Amino acid sequence: MNHPPYRDPYEVIDELGRLTTLDAGPLAQGLRLRAVHGSPATETSFKSILGLGLLLLARERGLLAEGQPVIESTSGSLGLGLAVAGRMLGHPVHLVSDPGIPEVTRLKIELAGATVHLIERPHPVLGTQQARDDLLQSMLEQHPEFYWTNQNDSPLNPEVYTRWVVPHLMRTLDFSRIVAGIFCVGSGGHFSALSAMLDGKGVPSYVADRHGSITFGGEPAPSILRGTGNQNRIPAVIEAARSRVAGVYRVSDDEACAGVRQLCTRGISVGGSSGVCYVGAQRLAADLVRLTGAGGTGQPGADGEILTFFADRGELYGTTLLNCGEKSTP
Ligand SMILES: Cc1ncc(COP(=O)(O)O)c(C=O)c1O
């Protein structure tokens, strides 16, 4: 598999990294939600940036050799990013996923030339993530020559956003208005980079986590939401950023779906993890207004913004989230 890059991969990632932000509307008295839109132009998600960035950084560091095969466990989005990046850079890509992967994502991955390996059934307690990890480990034993990007534990994960996303946000965000950030956590990659960015401006960051995630305590339970929360283990990436977690807001699947529907009424179509962020942001806003006054700034009459990150588009999930779990295709 030796495809010459159709474009300079560094130009591609520079373009992908220029994420736009949108005003997602009012939250509580004087406070509005500003969301970094993780999938503005590419029809994929922010994990396209991660997929390409992880391979570029690994090649720069001498961790990934020319033509070396790559393997990763994925709910779908990173898999698509890696598939496209692997094709661009000449690496065969093997992705371990589960039958819940959106059909459209699986098809796009296969079109990009990667191989999808699906688990047969979830682990009885630790769910699909554990079953994927088990399958990935057994494949790595058979193919020790594979390079495992290991998004959950690799410091390269937040580094990708720090290098290719944060500089653009630093130029485009109005930090004088931002009173807090709230982000969901899978690996913790984007939380790590964005909370460090906000921390540098003296702004605290919160987490919106789904029910059934063990990342911040709690019993493991399955969810219809993909990419957010952890059912089997706590990634080293979020562990390393834990000191920047100012607080955690927990959101159920039903509440996240209601959030997705509410955002639809504002003309914003996003996936379930964005619903988690939106509902978390509403609660954070109410707390900030209660504790510090209008706009969360402590100054009467002032207004402010909570920054969040909308990872992907609602269309990926058909009407599943709009019907709160009842599956159907787009
Ligand atoms: C849709 C979606 N939202 C949120 C996340 C969590 O992002 P991170 O891994 O940076 O914590 C992911 C991760 O795969 C995702 O796919």
UniProtKB/TrEMBL annotation:
<dbReference type="InterPro" id="IPR036052">
    <property type="entry name" value="TrpB-like_PALP_sf"/>
</dbReference>
<protein>
    <submittedName>
        <fullName>Pyridoxal-phosphate dependent enzyme</fullName>
    </submittedName>
</protein>
<keyword id="KW-0663">Pyridoxal phosphate</keyword>
<dbReference type="InterPro" id="IPR050214">
    <property type="entry name" value="Cys_Synth/Cystath_Beta-Synth"/>
</dbReference>
<dbReference type="Pfam" id="PF00291">
    <property type="entry name" value="PALP"/>
</dbReference>
<feature type="domain" description="Tryptophan synthase beta chain-like PALP">
    <location>
        <begin position="45"/>
        <end position="286"/>
    </location>
</feature>
<dbReference type="InterPro" id="IPR001926">
    <property type="entry name" value="TrpB-like_PALP"/>
</dbReference>
